[in-house]
Amino acid sequence: MPRNHRTAMAASTAAVILLVALPGVLVAQGSRNARMLKNAFGTKHTDDNYRQRLAAVSKLRGTADPFEARALVDAYRKLDAEAVVLRKEQGEVLDTRTSLEVARFRKDIDPIDTLQDELYATIRGVDPSLADVMLEELVTESRTPNGILSLQLLLAEKSAGFKDIDLLRTQITRPLDSGSRIAFFRVVATLGPRGNMFSSFLERELEAESASVRLEAARTLGAISARRSVPKLIDRLANERGRVKETIAIALANLTGQNHGLSAEAWKLWLKSLDSPDAIEPPSGTVPPPPKLPEMGEYFGIAQDGASILYVFDRSDSMERGLRSGGIREQRARRELADAIVKLDETTRFNIVAFSIKVRSWAKGFKPATKENIADARRWVFELDMQAGTSTYDALQRSFRLSNSRTIDRFDELDVETIFFLSDGEPTRRTGGTLQPLARDDPQRILSAVRRWNALGRVKIHTVGLALETKAAPILMRGLAEQSGGTFVAIR
Which of 339, 346, 422, 438 could tie 428 with a disulfide, CB 3.0–4.6 Å? Predict the structure, then answer.
């Protein structure tokens, strides 16, 4: 045989061997990367293993390997278990311990937050072909006694449009915690009309104890065009208030093309005018605008809505400076807040948080807007003194703790639906030192933390910036509003 033929045959044989062996090589490589990640997260976080952990996570970006995908989810769980303990302790020391202790907790939690953000982004970038793996991991997550809500929602996002309806039907009817049920609803919502097979299950969830579950069930029924569920939604409308009531009314408008607002009686009269519920036609043309909640006045031009409202008030010493439009910042802020709470409906619950280097709250929890409570709150606002520091991170963390989210990044019912956050400067953080007790804080780190605390997006955050002078300040204020569906207002 000529030499060139033997060479070609050898090359061809080698190529065949390589093609046959390639899947095994890829699996081995995937297993190796997965083992590296497991080893990196096999022990608790230390300053020494921080770089090792980051490097192990970076190797799995864009992975299409199921071993690696599961390893990423497992690493997120392990890291979260460490973070929860620290965050709980950190929340308990806010406004009760020294600046040194608060600064120490931030120093300990910052690298863990960075790792969680990296893991979250890497899981989000996992190849879409692994949707079945993500769905299976979501079920595994739901078996834990206290599921990690941000992870559950991320796994649901990766499982969006999942094709195996039978498997999805089996999983969604299992005993799941509230966070897992909400995550599954979000998977079902991506199915569109195909999700109608789950409408009976979703109708039962309209009666759930959790307001967040009821809200998500109503939203999903609207997303899957479940017109047969309209009578159930109307019945539930009469028993709800605040954001859940608004969501049900929006679902009804999307399903019917009608707009009878928030009135259950008006919706019942319309339904009674039909020959039967089966006569409900899909909406044609433009869907009516969403219904408006009862008018409760405005705060810096932003409509006050929600069954419970929290006002977060900057009392840093820079608030004693003037506004270009005239007047002193703190005087304008006090006056606007005092006028706003007077307009609240008596059934609306509210609280106020004031922050500088330390964080204070008017009340331990949310109180109804009675005349007595409003008078007491107004008095408290006008008695506040201005101090150094703009501890935005601490103020927002306190806000979510006040809202009953005792263990941050866990599913828990929040007492607040709307937050109004007012500030005039870029955020600072405590250093624990005496010569330089304050340093600039990272706006992106604050935004990332709030995304974890507000994982469901149930809390709408409106922001008011007074005479913002630095580049970092408007980035944070605008970001807080945009990521929660709120409004940002700049006052010069």
Answer: 438
Domain region containing 451: 298-491
DSSP class of 145: S
The model scores a pTM over 0.70: yes
Per-residue confidence at 378, pLDDT binned at 50, 70, 90?
very high
Signed CA dihedral, 186, 458, 492, 424: sign only: negative
Q: Which of 235, 291, 230, 229 shows the shortest CA–CA distance to 260?
A: 291
At 131, phi and psi to the nearest 5? Answer: -60, -40
Task: Report pLDDT for 273.
Answer: 92
**Same domain for 448 and 356?**
yes
* Ranges 174-178, 277-281, 288-292, 446-450, most confident: 446-450
Over residues 348-355, mean pLDDT: 95
Question: Does one domain contain both 325 and 401?
Answer: yes
Task: Tell me the sheet residues that pair with 308.
Answer: 349
Residue 153's CATH number: 1.25.10.10
Check: CB of residue 462 under 8 Å from CB of residue 304.
no
CA dihedral 41, 47, 53, 55 (to 10 degrees): -160
Q: Tell me, yes or no, whether 97 lies in a domain.
A: no
Q: What is the CATH number of the domain that holds 458?
A: 3.40.50.410
Number of domains in the chain: 2
According to DSSP, the residues that pair with 439 across neighbouring strands are: 429
56-70, 258-272, 282-296, 379-393: which range is least confident on average? 282-296
